[in-house]
Amino acid sequence: MKQIQRLQAVQNAAARLIFRKRKFDEVTSLLKKLHWLPVSQRIMYKLLVTTYRCIHGLAPSYLSRHIMSYVPTRSLRSQNLGRIVVPPPARLVHFGDRAFCQVAPKLWNDLDSSLRLAPSLTSFKRLLKSHLFDLAFNH
Hints:
Blueprint (H helix, E strand, L loop, with lengths): L1 H18 L8 H7 L4 H17 L5 H4 L35 H11 L2 H4 L4 H17 L2
Helix pairs in contact: 1-2, 3-5, 3-7
């Protein structure tokens, strides 16, 4: 968490530099004008784009093997919503819960089905960035 705060401070400083603002000026509006996602949302963006690539066979196999589509044992209305299997909790509480195979399915399944079922990588990226931007600045 401390590293994310440090990265956010660097991003904030870069935004202030671009707009020639002072150190203590409010930065949220600057990030909105630049259409930059805050660091935590940027991390989510990268994880979700990688997950999309895994699901659609566009990622390396060492990542793709951790992502499995959810297939219910009986017919359900939710079976065509693009969900993936969430693995059991990791044994290593501090590091295992941050692993791609743990975080990606949770983030993916929390997305709206219209995002999960995007027809192309380009449209998914566009929809996802708008979604995360709304979460970051319009909550």
